[in-house]
């Protein structure tokens, strides 16, 4: 059996490797356990290079070789910051108006993908299987084919794929789709994404290669974390500080795709329209700052600072604060206990590829007294998780009604809903996701290569 080669923009740091957080690293950890494998990508460092390509740094742990390269500050800016996060991210989250297109960044994006291919090439063997991840690396498959690579190459997109009528607003979208023909299989999160991708390919006279492989978590590991964390000092301190109030929890990177201002307004509407909850509920939003040097993200932060101040100013009592808002990351094991303590999770992205937080919340619950999941229709997880309360995240009043329903729901209904959700989270895990994708890639017809 040949090796598995994973390529992603970022390669987990040595610390993240031993304790992987998030679906990608967890799912791959198991896939990487069998046989020899290599994980290639950016180190996360920016270094000024004087001519030529970087040389990959190799570092081996058990049967996995991690190969990382540095980017120059100009590559970081054009490829990562501007094109990937400033153009592709908003567009693929249906926010064309936030896309800051520039032809220079497009050229840097293509050049960095070509550089990834050139630096990866000497590490490859003919019977390797290559699995490329996410929107930073759409053109990588073609760049490898241009260098004569004939291995099987699969691609997985972690974010949504919007309809062609939106995608086409990106200059060069047709070229990106053409490049994607180099992949033997393209995985996306949901059937809707697969349909959009396949229509886009067909609108450009290309073969449909998209298939849905919804990503999951490792529910057993997360449940164990949550149980352990309940006995820890942080959950005890949280419990004490709540003084009997119910807890509504939100956990998201501080990103405009996550619907945070709308969510805060939804909670405000709860306090306004259902005054019986005043003083009896606390909303804790954990939102670690992400991409903090991009203007749209700074604006969002200012907006949330203002909303939190306004809502707390209007509704606080001298001994009760309605919103607790933290923009630093919390430790994963602490977070797991907070999920288990929360009576409701409020997860209302405007668009999300999947949303692993929704699955983690379900895995963390106490079966005897589970909390309620409130989830946006526009999370990739929604079709699988419709036993939660599904909401339109643009409507603060609908969020308020859902919160009221969750906070007053009886034990029997909470348990019935949770059991169905738990079944779903346990049946599509990170491990089965990676295995299903790799099996399908192995079986995919190899398009016209000898
Ligand atoms: C992308 C797609 C897709 C969050 N805050 C803290 C923390 N987290 C962890 C969560 C979860 C992960 O980060 C976030 O995963 P999501 O899936 O919710 O969202 P994205 O980061 O946008 O991920 C998404 C995913 O890729 C996988 O394909 O589902 O749609 O956008 O695991 O728990 N972890 C810690 N502290 C925090 O404060 N330790």
UniProtKB/TrEMBL annotation:
InterPro entries attached to this UniProt entry:
Glyco_trans_20
Checking SUPFAM superfamilies in the record gives:
UDP-Glycosyltransferase/glycogen phosphorylase
Query: Which CDD domains does this entry report, sorted A to Z?
Result: GT20_TPS (cd03788)
Per the record, the domain of life is: Bacteria
| Pfam assignment, any one | Glyco_transf_20
Q: Gene3D superfamilies under this entry? A: Glycogen Phosphorylase B (3.40.50.2000)
Q: Which family does it belong to?
A: Belongs to the glycosyltransferase 20 family.
Protein's name according to its UniProt entry:
Trehalose-6-phosphate synthase
The scientific name of the source species is Komagataeibacter melomenusus
């Amino acid at each position: 059996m040949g090796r598995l080669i994973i390529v992603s923009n970022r390669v987990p740091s040595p610390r993240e490797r031993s304790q992987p957080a998030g679906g990608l690293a967890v799912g791959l950890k198991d896939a990487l356990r069998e046989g020899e494998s290599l994980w290639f990508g950016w180190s996360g460092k920016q270094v000024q290079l004087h001519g030529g390509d970087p040389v990959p740094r190799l570092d081996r742990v058990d049967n996995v070789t991690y190969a990382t390269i540095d980017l120059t500050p100009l590559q970081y800016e054009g490829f990562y910051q501007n094109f990937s996060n400033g153009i592709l991210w908003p567009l693929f989250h249906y926010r064309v108006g936030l896309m800051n297109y520039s032809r220079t960044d497009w050229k840097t994006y293509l050049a960095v993908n070509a550089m990834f291919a050139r630096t990866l090439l000497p590490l490859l063997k003919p019977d390797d299987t290559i699995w490329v991840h996410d929107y930073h690396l759409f053109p990588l498959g073609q760049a490898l084919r241009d260098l004569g690579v004939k291995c099987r190459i699969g691609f997985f997109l972690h974010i949504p794929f919007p309809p062609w009528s939106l995608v086409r607003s990106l200059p060069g979208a047709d070229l990106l789709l053409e490049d994607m023909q180099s992949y033997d299989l393209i995985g996306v999160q949901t059937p809707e994404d697969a349909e959009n991708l396949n229509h886009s390919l067909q609108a450009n006279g290309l073969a449909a290669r998209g298939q849905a492989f919804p990503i999951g978590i490792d529910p057993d590991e997360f449940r164990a974390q949550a149980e352990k964390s309940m006995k820890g000092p942080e959950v005890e301190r949280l419990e004490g500080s709540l003084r009997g109030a119910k807890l509504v929890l939100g956990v998201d990177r501080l990103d405009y795709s996550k619907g945070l201002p709308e969510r805060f307004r939804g909670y405000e509407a709860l306090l306004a329209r259902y005054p019986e909850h005043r003083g009896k509920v606390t909303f804790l939003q954990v939102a670690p700052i992400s991409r903090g040097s991009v203007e749209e993200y700074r604006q969002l932060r200012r907006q949330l600072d203002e909303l939190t101040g306004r809502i707390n100013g209007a509704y606080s009592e001298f001994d009760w604060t309605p919103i607790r808002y933290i923009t630093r990351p919390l430790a994963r094991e602490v977070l797991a206990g907070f999920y288990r303590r929360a009576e409701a999770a409020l997860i209302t992205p405007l668009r999300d590829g999947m949303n692993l937080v929704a699955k983690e919340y379900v895995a963390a619950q106490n079966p005897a007294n589970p909390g309620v999941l409130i989830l946006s229709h526009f999370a990739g997880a929604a079709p699988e998780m419709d036993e939660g309360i599904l909401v339109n995240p643009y409507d603060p009043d609908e969020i308020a009604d859902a919160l009221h329903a969750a906070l007053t729901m009886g034990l029997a209904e909470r348990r019935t809903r949770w059991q169905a959700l738990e079944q779903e989270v346990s049946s599509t895990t990170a491990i089965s996701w990676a295995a299903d994708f790799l099996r399908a890639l192995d079986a995919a017809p190899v398009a016209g290569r000898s």
